[in-house]
């Protein structure tokens, strides 16, 4: 099963209309003011680059500048857990995307412009290395001579958990974007889930007046079902009290769909569990305890790649290297 946090983030911001205000606040203010956010366009988030296996980013956008005839590309990756080498992952993704974009005649001489953005909302404090330069360990007498020749790259980093409610309120997010961010920040851990619905009641009301509102709330109910694990009747009582009986019925339908998909996925992946177990056993035998982050990402490996993971497990120098590039 996909990480439910990643699924909700993608559902919330895959539309340029919902992503505009969010991205405008994430980028440095001086850069954001130079961008014509009305031209924001969603682009394919799967790219090959340099003949390697496909890489799958969370979101990719293109956008124009206000007074300069150039296109800026925004590569967005969401993280719900700490990944201390995330800047290396983003460098790899960016290189592949630039390689793909460079095949266009528009970039026959100049490189495409690209900013890589990491959005994090986990409960643990995290300030990652923002640039490749932060990962090099150089003695002081050597650094001035070698640094100019080392690859340079830097990411923009947004920690949603550090935003106060008032700061979030001040951002120009759509109702759906605000509800999704609030859910990522609070709904998984808030003691009283009813507070989340109460706090956003007016937004829910406006969402339900739009054509896409019911479908988006279904995505939210699916997220809450996965991260809260509340019994069907308990969740139904909260929804009925805060949003009304019609939404309780929609929530119940979402629960039914999740149950059916879970059964089908379990049947489809039955033989794949054996391959997953093989990878875990080999890694544990070679390295001892396998990090939780590696185990979690192994669960997202596509079935057709699991056999390759089994072979790599016997050869890699680190547990993390057993993973395909797109889930590292």
Question: What would you say this structure looks like, in words?
Answer:
The protein is an alpha/beta fold. Helix 1 runs antiparallel to helix 10. The chain is globular and about 65 Å long. The chain has helices at 4-13, 16-26, 29-32, 86-101, 143-146, 165-170, 175-187, 193-199, 201-208, 213-228, 232-243, 245-268, 272-287, 292-298, 306-313; strands spanning 35-43, 46-47, 55-56, 59-65, 71-79, 113-120, 155-159. It has a 5-stranded mixed sheet, with helices on both faces. It has a two-stranded antiparallel ribbon with strand order 2-3.
What is the typical, i.e. mean, pLDDT? 85
Strand order of the largest sheet: 1-4-5-6-7
**Basic shape:** globular
Straight-line distance between termini: 16 Å
Write the H/E string, N to C: HHHEEEEEHEHEHHHHHHHHHH
Beta strand count: 7
The helicity comes to 40-55%
Main beta sheet, described? 5 strands, mixed
* Number of separate helices: 15
Helix/sheet category = alpha/beta
Q: Would you identify the regions where 5 or more consecutive residues have pLDDT less than 50?
A: none
Radius of gyration: 22 Å
Strand content: 5-15%
Secondary-structure map:
Elements: H1 4-13, H2 16-26, H3 29-32, E1 35-43, E2 46-47, E3 55-56, E4 59-65, E5 71-79, H4 86-101, E6 113-120, H5 143-146, E7 155-159, H6 165-170, H7 175-187, H8 193-199, H9 201-208, H10 213-228, H11 232-243, H12 245-268, H13 272-287, H14 292-298, H15 306-313
């Amino acid at each position: 099963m996909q990480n439910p946090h990643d699924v909700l983030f993608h559902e919330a911001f895959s539309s340029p209309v919902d992503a505009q205000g969010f991205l405008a606040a994430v980028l440095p203010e001086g850069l954001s003011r130079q961008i014509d956010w009305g031209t924001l366009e969603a682009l394919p988030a799967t790219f090959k680059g340099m003949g390697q296996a496909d890489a799958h980013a969370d979101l990719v956008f293109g956008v124009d500048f206000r007074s300069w005839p150039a296109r800026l590309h925004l590569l967005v990756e969401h993280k719900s857990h700490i990944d201390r080498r995330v800047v290396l992952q983003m460098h790899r993704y960016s290189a592949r995307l630039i390689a793909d974009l460079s095949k266009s005649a528009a970039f026959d001489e100049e490189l495409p412009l690209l900013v890589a953005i990491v959005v994090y909302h986990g409960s643990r404090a995290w300030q990652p290395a923002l640039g490749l330069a932060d990962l090099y360990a150089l003695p002081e007498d050597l650094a001035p001579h070698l640094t100019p020749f080392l690859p340079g790259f830097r990411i923009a980093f947004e920690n949603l958990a550090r935003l106060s409610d008032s700061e979030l309120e001040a951002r120009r997010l759509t109702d759906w974007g605000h509800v999704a961010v609030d859910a990522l920040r609070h709904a998984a851990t808030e003691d009283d889930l009813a507070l989340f619905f109460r706090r956003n009641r007016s937004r829910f009301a406006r969402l339900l007046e739009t054509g896409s509102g019911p479908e988006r709330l279904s995505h939210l109910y699916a997220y809450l079902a996965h991260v809260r694990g509340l019994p069907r009747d308990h969740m139904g009582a909260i929804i009925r009290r805060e949003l009304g009986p019609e939404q309780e019925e929609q929530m119940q339908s979402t629960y039914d769909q999740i149950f059916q998909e879970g059964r089908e996925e379990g049947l489809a992946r039955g033989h794949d569990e054996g391959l997953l177990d093989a990878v875990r056993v080999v890694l544990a035998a070679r390295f001892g305890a396998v990090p939780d982050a590696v185990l979690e990402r192994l669960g997202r490996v596509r079935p057709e790649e699991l056999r390759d993971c089994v072979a790599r497990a016997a050869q890699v120098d680190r547990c993390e290297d057993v993973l395909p590039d797109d889930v590292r």
